[in-house]
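Thread: "does anyone have the structure for this chain?"

Original post by V.I.:
We have the sequence but no experimental structure in hand. Need at least a predicted one for the grant figures.
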Amino acid sequence: MKKKILIIVYIMIMIVCAKQALNYFYNDYVLDHYRDGDYSINDNLLLSANFIEPYIAHYNNGNIFYNNSLYEEAINEYREALKCTPIPEKRECSIRINLALAMLKTLGDDYSEPENIDDSLALLYEARDVLLEVGCASDDGDGHSWKAQKLKDDIDEMIEELEDIKDQEQETEPSDSSEASDGSGESSESGETGSSGGNTMPDPSDPVNPTTDPSETSDGGSDPSETSEPSETTEIWGSRPTETTTIEQFDENTMEQMQQAAQEAYLQRQQELEDYAEYDNYNYDYNGIW
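Reply from O.Q.:
Generated one for you, tokens below.
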């Protein structure tokens, strides 16, 4: 009886050892391909019956998906890796950094368009929380991973840029409605002036019934020099009235400039994120097993 028990125990030990040997050598095989830029081999074989550092297989798969531009799949793998506890602090921060990077990669080029700002902000705040959750980064600037801290600070800048665009968009809405009401009032006033003026001739050197005084075109006290200059009238009496930049046109120009600036900032940020990826898109070897 004792002999049978010993045989069973021996077989179980051999199975466990064989499994861990497979984990080690297969993982090393995957790593070799990964370092050579071949992202076609994954760690799926190691996802089952992996009792020692199971997060590594998910993390490696996440990196492989990331380098194949499959960011949603990478996000899922990184999240699965975080469920495998315990994870050493340094390695958990690297998983969280790559998770945040993959989330940022899902932002489209039009992420700063007014109709996309709310969704973009929600994603940025979520990525930010991933870095803050276990102290890899902090609002005080003393997170225990400097790379996570810098990534969090860059995300904060992106959030601030989008919040500025959103605030500007909200400010333009009431100005558009007030412009419409002002326009109707000016029309009625110009009609009264025309009827009471009789045969009075307009001075050809001045704009006839200008839509808006250039000094009043900017909302919120903006520099009037930013508006387009009024076109010159011709020397012929009765020429078409000079048109100045309306508030609506000014707001449109401002929004275009802000969106262009945000797009440039986005491209610069993407380059910075690529630099981060170079720091953290490596895989971990199995350690502490042998």
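V.I.: this helps a lot. The helical segments are 2-35, 55-67, 71-83, 89-105, 117-132, 146-197, 247-280.
O.Q.: and The chain has two domains: 1-87, 108-179+214-221+244-284.
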